[in-house]
Amino acid sequence: MPDARPLASPDTPARRPMPRLIVPGLMVAMAAGVIVVAPLLLDNYLVNILVRACFVAIAAITVDIMWGYCGTLTFGQSAFFGIGAYALAIMFTEYGFGTWQVCAAIAAAMAVAAAVAAFTGWLSFYPGSTPLYASVISLVVPIVLVQILYSGGTFTGSSSGLVGFESFDLEIETWLRLAGLGLLATSVLALVVMRSDTGRLLAALRDNDARCTYLGIDTSRLRIIVLVLSAVVSALAGFFYAGFGGVAAPENASFTFGTNLVIMVALGGRGTVIGPVIGALCMEVASAYLANSLPYVWELIVGLALIVVILVFPDGLLGAVMRLFKRGGGAGRGTATMLRQAAAATAVNNPDAVAIEVRALGKHYGSLSVLDGVEFTAHRGELLSLVGPNGAGKTTLIRCLSDGRERSTGDVGIAGHDIARLSPDRVVRFGLGRKFQTASVFETLTVAECLRVARTHADPPALTSRSATLELPPAAMSVVERSGLSERLDEEARNLSHGLKQALELAMVLSLEPDVLLLDEPTAGLTRAERQSFADILTALARRDRLCILLVEHDLDFVREISSRIIVLHQGRLALDGSVDEVVNSELVREIYTGQHVPHAEVPA
């Protein structure tokens, strides 16, 4: 029976679930009460502004989810907002107002927004794309949509939009209650999801896309799903915005509106959900009172406010307040984590089976050959070191082994599977784990959250809750306990020392339960004691767990101590493949490291 024990930081108090729910519940109840009573206390002009502001704030939340949590700056949510507005306006203009028209318009708004978002995501988030590229694509979407609306003639109302159609016959006070409760429900749902295990996974995307990919997570697919869901919510906000105002105009889908949504999120505080709501409400109300009397000065004020916030409060106004609260001794977000050891993996049928098979591997950049004709085989239980001078192609070889798209020629097999031209997230599923040269972790997540993200393949994240139990395989558990990370589970990764970050990344990789482990200079910057601990861990992984370990390392003393075999790369070719004694005593290796020229003819193929 696996053992379970709480391993939170000693100064982290245990918290009962019920009190943690009472306070947020009371706050939601108070907010709902204010929404119900507010229409009785405010004049109609302000109520009108607040109704519109609530729908805009819902759209701002979707921008925050994409930018603040997924790390993709998007200007395209205005397009989906406009799609919702025009779905209602076109349906009511062409077919009148009625129950089936309302249902059809809602369905059309959601379907069209989802389809456009899926296509936009497919263009933006292909493997290897950059956040800048995705932002540019999102910028183009509202521009193209507005041009389509301008060209629609009487069907879309061209530049004048659609007005005068029959819509919902509700009192303005009722509209404020509905809009306010809709905003409250959206905010609560977003907060619940973003604070769940799924929300931590989205934050991991923002922090370190590459590490997510090498943990077997399909980051492109995940971002597309989030974009589609956000687009649907934004479209519904636009739908009711047009239903309240009785007008759908190109401005509702414009790039300018999309930029304003980004500004609202930046001012309020991205990655907070509540910050964008505050930013949207404040900007909409202030704009209604000041934009007409100070048309040009108002835009200048908004621009200056954005610059000041970016320079002085990069996390937004709410982010600055939250930071002060933490400094003042406010409670952290972490709770006691129950660390449980997973059942040991089933023993492999052949503990000495071939784990890595490389045949005629080459990597070329035009006429420049970085790797040429590299061939070798490694078995389970081997600790194989890859050495060579700087520029020999060691890290490039690691990339070619872990990413099927990297190599120019040749074949690579991992645990009996041909990796073909597969992306890293799919290669990882064959039993490969890769540790980078620089510790690659999720800086804003806690140690426990980093490890939980690493277990996504085995334990899918909950959508509305955060797991109190973290189950790790024996190898990962050993690293966590030996390094002392078990006492710092609730500490953010960015606060760890270099050595602990290296240990955390290794534990994350081992959480995949790999058969093949690729390590790129894992001891760089470690103390002597940390290097010795690392050596003991790697030796145990190879001998006890029968992992095949391929280690890139410059510390030849470390290599000599732990390796069962050494491969020497020189000028992109395999210069020597032999036992530790053969390589250490090789005259060829001495010539390579002393800088003497080694003709290609002398290098074994």
TrEMBL record:
Q: Which UniProt keywords apply?
A: ATP-binding, Cell membrane, Membrane, Nucleotide-binding, Transmembrane, Transmembrane helix, Transport
In this chain the ABC transporter domain maps to 356-596
Annotated membrane-spanning segments are 20-42, 49-69, 75-95, 102-126, 132-153, 174-194, 224-249, 261-290, 296-318
Q: Where does the protein end up? A: Cell membrane
Tell me, in one coarse class, where this protein mainly resides: membrane
Pfam families for this protein: ABC_tran, BPD_transp_2
Q: Which GO terms describe its cellular component?
A: plasma membrane
- Record's protein name: Putative ABC transporter ATP-binding protein
Q: Which organism is it from?
A: Bradyrhizobium oligotrophicum S58
